[in-house]
């Protein structure tokens, strides 16, 4: 059937959509979410169908095309195209197989991931894959196959120098900006460190959000290769490059459903590491209230799976289980966290000591793991690289290579509206709940308002006198500040006993 194109002037963000008039749909026996092949001159594509009930939306004899579909076939308003019924992708059968509780082989997993990346699956089909993997689980062979498929269906970075060192924290601890200190220490020691990081989803800031205070974090693969040659490492937002792109699409389905399937989490993390050619990887698993891993038994089981998957992918993996029962550092929110990071890199006496000590400890583990320091000497080497300014120099080169500049600490000023919660009585800080701190900081505007957030004056176990400051909330508007104060009262996550 030949139809005239109507430009709908709408973008879907990836999925290819076409709208046919109800009468034309009936003539071809097309139904909602069926697929059609669209041909225009020498180009063709497959799109999913929506059905228009009114002449005003799409008249009979016309085909409404969304922006992605227009671009795929090179058509424009008024172009004539030919449509025909297209079969469902083969991956749909494999998704049904997984829904029935059967395991998938490497070929089947690769076809599913390729269809995810190429936007050939509907939202329902992609969601079905995520739910089937969550409900029935995946064995280690399936997880490894999914990881390889995710890494192969996207760009890959290959470096001539080694070791290629990386790190990842499972998350759940606000202010845990160790990455921005560890990476320059490792670079100063001669490691290659291609670090891709996430933006915040439920936290007040991700590493990419905090790094963006200093420099751009969305760069081309060509630019990244040059930065590696010139500096030895980078810190960018993983979503800005086409590394394991299926991962982001799967996460978009998991998040609203609050699904955190272990197999998909393992594949998600390890696919990004495989994409950048990591040879040595340190995984931090924080445990405690508000973290993603609730207890030590689950943490140890997860660590075993990371080690096994690393062996299958030929990546050397080391895991550490850390205490995550309170935020790290003093600042929560991009600007405040950035100030903490730079104060540590300057080896300032006012730098938060918990952030400094944890960063030095983790750097020491990685320096020994990567063969840059002798056993038992890693922490001393890391501290020396901080004290001498070598790590700050590496961070300065990295930031400038990414198009930014290191500011003076006094330039990193939080938002102007503030409220300080003070101790209601003499006692000790009994609770600094991660979830409460994160929620209050987000309601205050973080991370979208980079200067919004929370400053922690105290930490767990610390003695306070009545009237002494516990936290200060910063917000750009009085309305946001009041909202944050209301949430702080409701959650009651800060306790003095």
Write up this protein:
The chain is an alpha/beta fold and 497 residues long. The protein has four domains: 2-86, Beta Barrel (Barwin-like endoglucanases), CATH 2.40.40.20; 91-137, Transferase, Pyrimidine Nucleoside Phosphorylase, Chain C (Transferase, Pyrimidine Nucleoside Phosphorylase, Chain A, domain 3); 165-244 and 255-401, Nucleoside phosphorylase/phosphoribosyltransferase catalytic domain (Pyrimidine Nucleoside Phosphorylase, Chain A, domain 2, 3-Layer(aba) Sandwich); 414-496, Aldehyde Oxidoreductase, domain 3 (Alpha-Beta Complex). Helices cover 41% and strands 20% of the residues. The protein contains 18 helices and 18 strands. It has helices at 22-27, 67-73, 91-99, 106-117, 123-136, 140-152, 179-188, 207-211, 221-230, 245-257, 262-275, 296-313, 334-345, 353-369, 378-387, 390-401, 434-443, 478-491, and strands spanning 2-7, 17-21, 35-40, 43-52, 62-65, 80-86, 165-169, 193-197, 233-237, 280-287, 316-323, 331-332, 417-422, 427-432, 453-456, 463-464, 469-475, 494-496. Strands 1-5-2-4-3-6 form a six-stranded mixed β-barrel. It starts with a strand and ends with a strand.
Brief overview, please?
The protein has 497 residues and is of the alpha/beta class. The protein has helices spanning 22-27, 67-73, 91-99, 106-117, 123-136, 140-152, 179-188, 207-211, 221-230, 245-257, 262-275, 296-313, 334-345, 353-369, 378-387, 390-401, 434-443, 478-491, and strands spanning 2-7, 17-21, 35-40, 43-52, 62-65, 80-86, 165-169, 193-197, 233-237, 280-287, 316-323, 331-332, 417-422, 427-432, 453-456, 463-464, 469-475, 494-496.
